[in-house]
Specification:
Blueprint: H1 20-38, E1 42-48, E2 51-57, H2 63-66, E3 83-89, H3 90-93, E4 107-108, E5 114-116, E6 132-137, E7 142-147, E8 152-157, H4 165-169, H5 173-182, E9 186-189, E10 191-195, E11 198-202, H6 210-216, E12 223-226, E13 229-233, E14 239-241, E15 246-249, E16 275-278, E17 290-301, E18 308-311, H7 314-326, H8 334-344, E19 349-354, H9 361-370
Parallel strand pairs: 2-3, 3-8, 11-17, 17-19
Antiparallel strand pairs: 1-2, 4-5, 6-7, 7-8, 9-13, 10-11, 10-12, 13-14, 14-17, 15-16, 18-19
Helix pairs in contact: 7-8
């Protein structure tokens, strides 16, 4: 694959030009070298939120880590995809990413000690502008960059074999957040389930019962968009789009979802991390690409048998959506809040008071949607 525009790498850029554009160009050249080294250039095409995306992977070894969660959105090749994402690692391609050039942007505390060049969300200070977005994920040892002018993104990690399960179950989420936000869609930390008549968005912090609620609906005649992350559009009508077919649940709660056990992917690692389920293709008939949203639900666990609904103010729904979303996504800011604010103003919001009888939860949600 040829990436434009690309020039020769400048190994002295750390000393001279430390602009985001220069580093992006250098990283693009390294990806091309990775393709040449492996002799393999793989392309996969997907439709996410109504936009075409092309993944370019330098080598077969990268496939398991980047396509399993989005394979339900696979499409035929298109001539001019809206977004292209280039993916490689050092180890499998025998290449080497140079040291990052952003040392001069390090932040110091009043005592003169180094704090960090990175924010807690992964933003790289000084390396984000109107055109280039840059983030680094320390726990995954991965770099994400987007050139909005060329609709071209880069994803690099040192060794793809060491990516944590949360990264494999929701790949490229930082890049997708940047690009989709630039095109009027918002990446949110939220679940979404529904019926043929539409669906509901479930928002809340970890431990609120959101995942248990969503996954219990898979045992009934309901449709699935997301457990953890989805895309929302506020215009022309509130809508939720599928991104990943994966789901996560605390290991001590998997006994509540026996119908999901055939899709469990990390059985040997649940003493260290959440249980990860890849629902496609096992639940292919239940997974939908999206639906109009008729309500926002805010789950909360209650000590009673029956599940009930009580009205909630829109600002409470906005707070639930924004807090869990903004804290996870690099460069999420005013534009993200504006989309979420327009969204919650258009649909009713409810507290979903979860009872102990999990089998009744889907019926309550379906009843609301059909009503």
């Amino acid at each position: 694959m040829v990436i434009e525009p690309v020039g020769p790498p400048d190994t002295s850029m750390q000393e001279r030009d430390t602009s985001p554009e220069t580093f992006f160009k250098t990283a693009s050249h390294i990806f091309q070298k990775a393709e040449q080294t492996t002799g393999v250039s793989l392309e996969r095409f997907y439709n996410i939120g109504g936009h075409s995306m092309r993944l370019c992977l330098a080598g077969f070894s990268l496939i398991p880590n980047f396509i399993q969660a989005i394979e339900h959105l696979k499409t035929e090749p298109v001539l001019k995809p809206a977004l292209t994402v280039c993916i490689w690692d050092d180890v499998s391609t025998h290449t080497r990413m140079p040291p990052p050039p952003w040392g001069k942007y390090t932040v110091y505390n009043p005592q003169g000690d180094t704090q960090s060049v990175y924010t807690r969300r992964g933003d790289v200070r000084g390396f984000n502008n109107d055109r280039i977005c840059t983030a680094y994920n320390w726990s995954a040892a991965s770099l994400s960059m987007l050139d909005k002018g060329n609709n071209l993104a880069l994803y690099w990690t040192y060794d793809a074999r060491n990516l944590p399960s949360y990264e494999i179950s929701a790949p490229l989420r930082t890049i997708l957040h940047w690009w989709m936000n630039h095109h009027g869609l918002q990446f949110v930390h939220s679940g979404a389930v529904g019926t043929c008549h539409g669906g509901v968005l479930l928002a809340g912090k970890g431990g609120s019962g959101k995942s248990t609620t969503v996954l219990s609906c898979l045992s009934k005649d309901m449709l699935y968009v997301s457990d953890d992350y989805c895309l929302i559009a506020a215009d022309p009508v509130p809508y939720a789009y599928s991104i990943y077919s994966s789901a996560k649940l605390n290991a001590d709660n998997i006994h509540r979802v026996p119908h999901l056990m055939p899709t469990l992917s990390n059985r040997d690692l649940m003493d260290k991390e959440k249980a990860v389920f890849f629902l496609y293709p096992y639940f292919a008939k239940k997974i939908t690409t999206g639906f109009p949203v008729s309500a926002i639900l805010l789950p909360r666990i209650m000590e009673k048998r029956d599940t009930t609904l009580t009205p909630a103010p829109p600002m409470e729904a906005l707070k639930a959506l924004a807090l869990s979303t903004m804290s996870q996504l690099a460069r999420a800011g005013r534009e993200s809040v504006q989309i979420m604010h327009r969204f919650v103003q258009q649909v009713p919001c409810y507290h979903l008071d979860l009872g102990t009888d999990l089998a009744r939860i889907p019926d309550v949600i379906a009843g609301l949607i059909n009503k």
